[in-house]
User: Fold this.
Amino acid sequence: MSSATSLSVRTATVMAFDARGTRRFHIDDSFELVPSSGRTPFAHTFKLLLAQSPGALQWEVQIQQLPLITLTWDSVFKGAGVARVRLGDEPAETMILMDGSDSRAEAVVLDGLAETLAREPGTTVHPVFAAFRAATHRPLIAAIRFPCLEDEIRYNVVAGITRSLALAFFTPVVAAAVESAESFESASIAQPISA
Assistant:
């Protein structure tokens, strides 16, 4: 068995509020950052996209009976970034992913997004962002969910996208180590032994 399988598993936490400023809890707000095809269906895709374009990207997918899903990602600092998910023309979720590596970068990202959202009508962001700033657990997904996610199917699809992005963003080094170890194991087994 390779030593890569003994790596410790980190747990990500989602701290979510609705656009009215009410905290929303779900049973899956804490999850281990491990690949699971059912719970993180797009993790590999996001890992490749973030490797190619870590600062900004846009990704779209069409899932049967749902409007076009669009994810946009912006990150100016290592360890913190903003993702927005839309279902058709409707905002579904805005989230800040923070890995804890740079608290100053996290503060800049939080302040910038709070200022942007405060300009949008119908949002109550000041208490929400105060809670995000006070949160100490890392990795953290600080999320604002919009009314279109009150539908269970839509919520579950966006939750899968959120988990997939979190896995890709928070575990690039761990994933690379595991892939490297697996490649090494298969290469060692496949090499002929010369006498």
